[in-house]
Design brief:
This protein is an alpha/beta fold and 297 residues long. The protein contains ten helices and twelve strands.
């Protein structure tokens, strides 16, 4: 079963190296596990390409069944262990960086104080992984913005909880911090860090401009540490403002934060049947109302 779970992780991320990092094992060890699984079926499960890996027709056949079987086996094991008094109930949650780093830690703490019989699993993942997890029944809840990509694939309900815009951030000692209002030309004269976003991410007209990127990283925390005490700039959600400030990172006054988007919780219909999930949602709504997030229109 371990190799099958590793196979699903590689298929979901389209990359052996990314899957190995998430699974906290070496890339050669994961490659050997995939090879062992391919040997057991006698067929290639992946097609290797320059961008990573994709499923072969044989791999697609295995994947479509594995993603149904593994969650069901996990639920069965958890139920058996709960009946034996050896395990707690579990809630599985996925989110983007904003929720995972700034909101869900407080929600999870509040929930844990009143629900000692439940363990909460939180994973920060990109939108593709979150979508796959919802479709395959891996996650009970997903927090973030809602994309139309969800609608054709899985029946979900979206409840908006906050609104977020895009701010431009810099180190607190950056020269542009001395300016009362920072112009587009001044921002474009500096190099940028991309925290895993598209290169055109940015408020207003900035999103239509070509920028000079110094670094692209795959996690917001990596980007934050790189931005600190540097001459670089970075686009990120307005909701990060309080967290970034603790690292000496501040938002520049650019006069226009651009369009604001709703962010909230994406709920598969099956999840609301579970009392623990409903309770977690209630705590999330109460906690969000207390947080000092920037008010954006």
């Amino acid at each position: 079963m371990r190799e099958l779970r590793q196979f699903v992780e590689v298929a979901s991320r389209h990359s052996i190296s990314a899957a190995a990092k998430h699974l906290n094992i070496s890339q050669p060890a994961l490659s050997r596990a995939i090879q062992k699984l391919e040997d057991s079926y006698g067929v290639p499960l992946f097609v290797r390409n320059g961008a990573g890996v994709s499923l072969s027709p044989y791999g697609s056949a295995l994947y479509s069944r594995a993603v149904r079987v593994l969650p069901a086996l996990d639920e069965a094991r958890e139920e058996i262990e709960q009946l034996q008094g050896r395990a707690k109930a579990a809630i599985r949650i996925a989110s983007g960086d904003l929720w995972g780093l700034t909101i869900l830690p407080e929600v999870t703490r509040e929930f844990a104080l009143t629900h000692p019989q439940v363990v909460v699993h939180v994973e920060i993942a990109d939108e593709g992984v979150r979508l796959e997890g919802l479709r395959n029944g891996i996650y009970d809840l997903v927090f973030g913005t809602f994309s139309t990509r969800y609608s054709p694939l899985v029946k979900v309900e979206f409840q908006p909880l906050v609104r977020q815009a895009t701010f431009i951030y810099s180190d607190q000692d950056h020269p542009l911090r001395q300016h009362e209002l920072v112009s587009l030309e001044e921002m474009l004269a500096h190099r940028w860090i991309s925290p895993g976003y598209e290169d055109d991410a940015g408020p207003g007209s900035l999103g239509r401009q070509s920028r000079d990127f110094a670094a692209r990283v795959d996690t917001m925390m990596n980007a934050l540490l790189l931005l600190r005490r540097s001459p670089f700039l970075m686009s990120a959600s307005s909701g990060f403002q309080s967290l970034f400030r603790t690292f000496g990172i501040e938002a520049l006054n650019i006069g226009d934060a651009g369009r604001a988007d709703d962010s909230g919780v994406i709920i598969p219909s099956r999840s609301l049947e579970r009392p623990a999930v409903r309770d977690f949602l209630q705590v999330a709504k109460q906690t969000v109302s207390k947080l000092r997030l920037p008010v954006v229109e």
